[in-house]
Amino acid sequence: MGLVVQKYGGSSVADAEGIKRVAKRIVEAKKNGHQVVVVVSAMGDTTDELIDLAEQVSPMPAGREFDMLLTAGERISMALLAMAIKNLGHEAQSFTGSQAGVITDSVHNKARIIDVTPGRIRTALDEGNIAIVAGFQGVSQDKKDITTLGRGGSDTTAVALAAALDAEVCEIYTDVDGVFTADPRVVKKARKIDWISFEDMLELASSGSKVLLHRCVEYARRYNIPIHVRSSFSGLQGTWVSNEPRGDRTVEQAIISGVAHDTSEAKITVVGVPDKPGEAAAIFRTIADAEINIDMVVQNVSAAATGLTDISFTLPKTEGRKAIDALEKQKAAIGFESLRYDDQIGKISLVGAGMKTNPGVTASFFEALSNAGVNIELISTSEIRISVVTRADDVNEAVRAVHTAFGLDSESAEAVVYGGTGR
Amino acid sequence: MGLVVQKYGGSSVADAEGIKRVAKRIVEAKKNGHQVVVVVSAMGDTTDELIDLAEQVSPMPAGREFDMLLTAGERISMALLAMAIKNLGHEAQSFTGSQAGVITDSVHNKARIIDVTPGRIRTALDEGNIAIVAGFQGVSQDKKDITTLGRGGSDTTAVALAAALDAEVCEIYTDVDGVFTADPRVVKKARKIDWISFEDMLELASSGSKVLLHRCVEYARRYNIPIHVRSSFSGLQGTWVSNEPRGDRTVEQAIISGVAHDTSEAKITVVGVPDKPGEAAAIFRTIADAEINIDMVVQNVSAAATGLTDISFTLPKTEGRKAIDALEKQKAAIGFESLRYDDQIGKISLVGAGMKTNPGVTASFFEALSNAGVNIELISTSEIRISVVTRADDVNEAVRAVHTAFGLDSESAEAVVYGGTGR
User: Fold this and answer.
1) How many domains, chain B?
2) Disulfide check for B7: which of A323, A420, B158, B181 has CB 3.0–4.6 Å away?
3) Which residues in chain A show pLDDT less than 50?
4) CA–CA min distance A80, chain B (Å)
5) Which of A57, A66, A93 sits opposite B20 (nearest CB)?
6) Of A211, A231, A252, which residue constitutes the final position of a domain?
7) Residue A95: helix, strand or coil by DSSP?
């Protein structure tokens, strides 16, 4: 029996009862002969409450102090969890990100892990302890300041520790049963996926699936750490994310892993761009300089008569204002006619490594959307993903139609509570 | 203009408004040309809420994890305070006890400071920052674990930093205007003391005055750091505690500094103790082995006929059960007849260095009590203090009578809100 890293999100430790329930589960793993390292998020709404306080004292809380503030949340949950475990008769020690050796760069509020030196964790484990580690936080290499890892940070902490400690598996406990073939709030017949490859999981994550964040899956793939996403409220097997299909699940490997959707993006169309070299570069350099990440990019065929073309791209709605402002400033330099902003769009993505060798997939996808009366506005593809942009109002219907068309519906409709991952 | 250490208690930073008010005051000190180090406690009831959570998950929270939990409180208040200061256009950085170099022993929940190495604080100050430091917490020298300093810990942090940084003054901001000649909740005519010596302040603190704790004053005396206790809600001068009387206050130096009272103690009488050498030692060794601190000790004159005597002592009510149990176990070995436990007592103490050279003080003290109809049960004296034990019901009346008899009443009766120091 080897070493297991378990990560519990805020909803799993929302109150004293939750903490006691999680403590029991951790002790089970220990009793089964594992060395256990636990990464824990802040309790329930703690982080939101701290952010609210910060906004009351300062309209734009500063990076370093904001991180100092937010990291109090995990300090509370990890200490309580260690106490609850001790109360069950087992030894546990809690460690801050800094004490656990999570070394980051100095970019406050969204630091990146650059090294993990878990010497104190090893010692604690060797002495028979269960080690509880604060998720979401680290210490900067140069200034020794407290940093936070940004969204999905606790999952990343867990995977990074699993890699540094050469763990057998990184178990991500959450409030859903695993990764589903579609969002069960939208598709009642969505099925839990038993196994999915890192690649497909990466595509799902970047297409709107919220169970695991892209960053955490990317880290796990790099170090080849199997992730097991499962519910902290049940004893059920969840979804394994790994390189190699597990056990008898090889036979199940489907052409399509799932359907993801995303309504958090907006579309900007740059109208009347001179159709000559360097124009697209000028537009996207402007966007990049504003530190905005874009998603899909489409350029229409130029109308021969005018020599002008349109370029559309999608980006997070939250960045919309900033992008428009940045482009308007460069309007003369770039030489376009106007900008159109549309935040009533949705994106539907079909993900599956099997589509590489199944030429009919794209056609079936478009047929399913057409039969459901859904109009396609943009198309973008990768080797293992097809994404389309539609009206936001059409998204749910489109997801259900595609899910059914690719035979993903489960026999029995299940009602599943589905939540976000927090941090 | 030199370096000033300011300490703000939990009631001063109880909410966002309080934090903003405190931030303004800090910025004032900075604008006046001082280098400013601020020690801050947890916000209002935060600590109690954390303790409540701990008790929900574990009936006896463990030392190390309990400290990890509680220190989250200061992390929140100090980060918010730094943000609020930045919002006023000044630079501020917050530091945990560990980052500030507060090195302690490993006794969790009541660690003692053994060294202060404020290198990071110095650097922050030299760079023009206001340094905000978490009170009440440190890091253990041997294990590098987070520790807390126990009751009055934030005041002690402030004085220790003031000593290590060679500060001009340590300002303790609280919710009262300073140290009073008696508890203003009991004596409406109590006066604020402008200056008091370390020695008198130590006696007041150990006699029930709660504005400053003994430990903090002792530390300040050892390093000769003047303390200025004052209100965070007003701009008034408070009480200076120092070696040398300040300015024109020398002429004011009174015979008596103040009257303290304490109703938190109980009295144990060991009845029928053989009047021979070693008996008292056996009793107090038993108490010491149980790690109980006692206060007053009185032995009656032996009744010649029986050769038996009674020994009485006072101790915190919270330790009463433990002391009785410890003595009962040793009953046969010590050879006493019975134990009497009385928790309906109160202690009144008169404190003042002047009484050394004023022989009438003791007589006047007893006369005042007698005139008020208060019966004296135990008496204990030091060079600058007289304490008596009375019925708890008589304490308030006794304090008022003594306060008046020694001419401490102010001309005008003031209504003052009087609170504890928290931590």
Assistant:
1) 2
2) B158
3) 249-252, 413-423
4) 6
5) A57
6) A252
7) strand
